[in-house]
Structures are given as C-alpha cells and as structure tokens.
Write a structure and sequence with these properties.
Elements: E1 2-9, E2 14-21, E3 26-31, H1 40-43, H2 46-49, H3 51-55, E4 59-64, H4 67-74, H5 79-104, E5 112-117, H6 119-130, E6 135-141, H7 157-162, H8 164-170, H9 176-181, E7 185-190, H10 198-210, E8 215-219, H11 228-243
Parallel strand pairs: 3-4, 3-5, 5-6, 6-7, 7-8
Antiparallel strand pairs: 1-2, 2-4
Helix pairs in contact: 4-5, 6-8
Length: 251
Amino acid sequence: MRDRNTWYSPRVERDVTLVRWGSYGVPVLAFPTAGGDAEEIERMHLIDSLGDLIGRGSIKVYSCDSVNGQVLVAGEGDVRHRTRMLIQFLEYVRCEVVPAIRADCRSDSIEIITSGASIGAFNALALLCRSPETFRAAICMSGTFDISRFLGGPTDDDYNAASPLQIVTDLAEDDPRLAKLRERFVILASGEGAHEDIGESWRVAHFLGIRGIPNRVDPWGPQWAHDWPLWREMLPQYIEALLATTDGGPH
C-alpha cells in the first residue's frame, strides 16, 4: 500500500512531500541522498529490496524530500541561508514529519528507525542525536557527516546545531538527551570502493564512543562503491537485525 501527501511547510518555506509504503509495522524513515525527493528510494529500487519486510507487515517505510540537500546541491542563496536551511529541515522533520508518521501509526509515542545514505546518513544521525526520545536507531550507510565543504563558506551556529558530531560533543553530561542516546544504537556501514570514505564512519564512531553512545562500524569491502546496489543490500539486513533485538541494536 502506497500513500503520498504534499503540504506547504512554513519551516522550509516550500511545498514538501511525504510518501509511505506499507500498512503495518515499525515505522522506518528513510532519507533520500543529497538532491533526492521523497520518491527517490522507490525509483532506485530500495523499496523493492524491502519488499519482504513491507509485505509481511514488519515495517512501514516513509520518505520525505531532501530539502537541505537540494539547497546545498543547487547552491541556493548565500551561506547563511544554506546553514539556516540545515537546521530548518531538521525542525521540519521533527515538528511536521514525525507527527504525520505517528498519526498514521495511530500512536503519539511510537519510536522510529531512521536511515539514509550519503547526506541522508547525516540527516538520519542528526535526527537521532537531536531527538533520541523519538528515534530508536540510526542506520547510516556510506555516510557523509562533514558537509561543511558543501556550504561554500564558513560554518555558524545553525550549522553546529545541525551537525551530529557537534551536537554530541556539546551535550552536557547531565543532559537527559545524552542519557537517552546511551540507550540507542547507531549503525555506520560503508563500502571501501569507488567514492566511499569509510574514514568518515570511523571518525563518527570515535566521537559517539567518547560519549558512551552505542555504535558499530561495518566495513563492506572494496568491491562495494558509493551507489544504490550497496544500499539495497545493506538496509534490509540492518532493519531485520534491529527488529530482532529488544535492547536497541545488534551487537
């Protein structure tokens, strides 16, 4: 079962789309790559790879437009506008997408698995770090976590508020979000072939580990390039593993 909804978001100041595949199961929010829209994961057959999980009612998959990625790819506005859109996108997901998912699931407290590839991995991890009470795990595939190089200028407070590494670094030891993050799980999976940089995943793992946030780096080897065949292979396996656990993540 597929459902598509579009509305105007005042947070990102444009029309946005949310698509759902499936009728029952644990909600999975899958972010597109940098310039992708909400239907990219269907066009690139990621939904096909999740067909068994969707068909047997284990998961419902949602995806929204990658507004912040589209802004970066297009070089929209000046640097200040681009950094503002990073944080506004995360607020749009938190304040508009999450309530829509929970309404669709008929639960105001259901926890969501978040996932994404490339800049989608940045968004998945940033949402988990900002809202660990909402997201139970992040599946980060071939992650691009330092996106400052795409801004075309210096970073600022909005960039720091959107960057998962900065969020984790800045959390006080007594912050309830840090305690909640220590109950969550982050999968950092990467190939080591063309256009992959597994060093980004190891760097993120280091920062998460310092703060006691459970995570695992999975190297998939040099035969896997930074492309959809890898992510179609990865995502079903990691979702299956997460669904099979009760403690937040596979070990």
